[in-house]
């Protein structure tokens, strides 16, 4: 039986990432407020936000400084843009800061409002720049199966998940998907992680040769695949992949939308996983998600090519009304200041061992096939048979059931296929990590009872 608010919700809101056929019966969890790593629903029940919202609310709820930064900017200059020779101080200061911390030699920063817009921008820049460089055939972009890069037309094409393509008439014809680097699921019998990485690199090389290297422009990768199920690359993966890209003059785009800003204990996941990107997409924890903001960070050679295009054809015809929105930029600057002032990433590095120990201990659970993770992000993959790694019948939606039981236990986590993912705010304490995993373990016990 739905409450009045739930009934109004399902009658009017078209919910993203939901089963639109069953949602009207199930109803929705309606949240009202949050403090720290906790959120409270409209009945006052508290939950540990074990997903930091959508992998984004890094500093938790109730950060007055961020509220103040937004309010102060709204009072002073609530809107200004960067089009046609205009600018404003928050965007300038934020671009300078992002340049300084970028995981590569950065020249400029392009602002947008989301990860999807950042990756769409990446794809447009790849095309535009290759035209500028006189390589009009070099346009294909290789992503990976199970990658998540967003939902706009280009970024949904880059995403490597069936639900983002089926009946949306995607992916675009210039996108290809390489193999998913999930060792536990896809390695051959007895194949080590390093051997698996070497094989994937050889397969990528063969794929590029088959496409024609002169037609492949870029490879895009999250340091750790997030919304595809938290897939940590196998040992030596990027070290094996990057020489293949270099050989064929294919640029590497790092999608740091989840990994950026401390998720793996450093500013960027690229530096933790040995990625040397040409360009970077960021969003989410850039503002601790208090307001929407995304960005693309580019190097000199792309900036030069863009300038050359303008010299030839005039205006650089790309930009959003909210590119570099002053309120979002002010909140981002304050967020980055807090990361540094409170040494948040040292805190993350200090709690990672405990988080990973509690996570990996779940591998012993009877319905968990793999417990995987790195930094402050992880997932448990549910299986019907641990020995053969056989999944539950998809129609039973075992992970969704476990997530519903976790919710009942006062924990928000997320089902991705057969995996249950966990990605708490960076500021979570040791006691809260223990409480999170105690609740998750109880939910898994109840899911096991339900399943057998
Ligand atoms: N890239 C990655 C790695 C993401 O995880 C996401 C969202 O989860 C996106 C891009 C898309 O970001 P947005 O939902 O802000 O468009």
TrEMBL record:
GO terms assigned for molecular function: adenosylmethionine-8-amino-7-oxononanoate transaminase activity; pyridoxal phosphate binding
Keywords for the protein's UniProt record, in alphabetical order: Aminotransferase, Pyridoxal phosphate, Transferase
CDD domains in alphabetical order: OAT_like
Pfam family, one: Aminotran_3
Family annotation (Gene3D superfamilies): Aspartate Aminotransferase, domain 1, Type I PLP-dependent aspartate aminotransferase-like (Major domain)
Record bears the keyword Acyltransferase: no
UniProt keyword Ribosomal protein, yes or no: no
GO biological process: biotin biosynthetic process; gamma-aminobutyric acid metabolic process
Family: Belongs to the class-III pyridoxal-phosphate-dependent aminotransferase family.
Record-given protein name: Aminotransferase class III-fold pyridoxal phosphate-dependent enzyme
Organism: Hansschlegelia zhihuaiae
């Amino acid at each position: 039986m739905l409450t009045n608010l739930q009934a109004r919700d399902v009658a009017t809101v078209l919910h993203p990432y939901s089963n639109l056929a069953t949602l009207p019966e199930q109803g929705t969890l309606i949240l009202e407020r949050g403090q720290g790593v906790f959120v409270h629903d409209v009945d006052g029940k508290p939950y540990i936000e074990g997903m930091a919202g959508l992998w984004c609310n890094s500093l938790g709820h109730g950060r007055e400084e961020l509220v103040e930064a937004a309010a102060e900017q709204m009072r002073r200059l609530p809107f200004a843009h960067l089009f046609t020779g205009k600018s404003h101080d928050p965007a300038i200061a934020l671009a300078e800061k992002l340049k300084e911390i970028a995981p590569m030699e950065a020249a400029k920063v392009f602002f947008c409002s989301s990860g999807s817009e950042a990756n769409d921008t990446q794809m447009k820049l790849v095309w535009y720049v290759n035209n500028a460089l006189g390589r009009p055939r070099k346009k294909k972009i290789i992503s990976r199966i199970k990658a998540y890069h967003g939902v706009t037309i280009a970024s949904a094409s880059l995403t490597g998940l069936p639900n983002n393509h089926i009946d949306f008439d995607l992916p675009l014809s210039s996108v290809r998907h390489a193999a998913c680097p999930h060792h536990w699921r896809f390695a051959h019998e007895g194949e080590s992680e390093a051997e698996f990485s070497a094989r994937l690199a050889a397969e990528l090389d063969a794929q590029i040769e088959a496409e024609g290297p002169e037609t492949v422009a870029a490879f895009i990768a999250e340091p750790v695949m997030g919304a595809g199920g938290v897939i940590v690359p196998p040992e030596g993966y990027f070290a094996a992949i990057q020489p293949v890209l270099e050989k064929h003059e294919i640029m590497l785009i790092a999608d740091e939308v989840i990994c950026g800003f401390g998720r793996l204990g450093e500013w960027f996941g690229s530096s933790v996983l040995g990625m040397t990107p040409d360009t970077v997409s960021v969003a989410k924890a850039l503002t601790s998600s208090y307001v929407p903001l995304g960005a693309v960070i580019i190097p000199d050679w792309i900036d030069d090519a863009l300038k050359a295009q303008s010299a030839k054809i005039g205006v650089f015809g790309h930009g959003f009304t909210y590119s570099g929105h002053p309120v979002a930029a002010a909140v981002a600057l304050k967020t980055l200041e807090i990361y540094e002032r409170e040494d948040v990433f040292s805190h993350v590095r200090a709690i990672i061992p405990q988080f990973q120990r509690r996570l990996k201990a779940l591998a012993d659970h009877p319905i968990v096939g793999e417990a995987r993770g790195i930094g402050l992000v992880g997932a448990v993959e549910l299986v019907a048979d641990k020995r053969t790694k056989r999944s539950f019948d998809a129609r039973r939606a075992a992970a969704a059931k476990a997530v519903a039981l976790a919710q009942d236990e006062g924990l928000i986590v997320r089902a991705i296929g057969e995996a249950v993912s966990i990605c708490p705010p960076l500021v979570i304490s040791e006691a809260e990590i223990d409480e999170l995993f105690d609740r998750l373990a109880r939910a898994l016990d109840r899911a096991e009872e339900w399943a057998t």
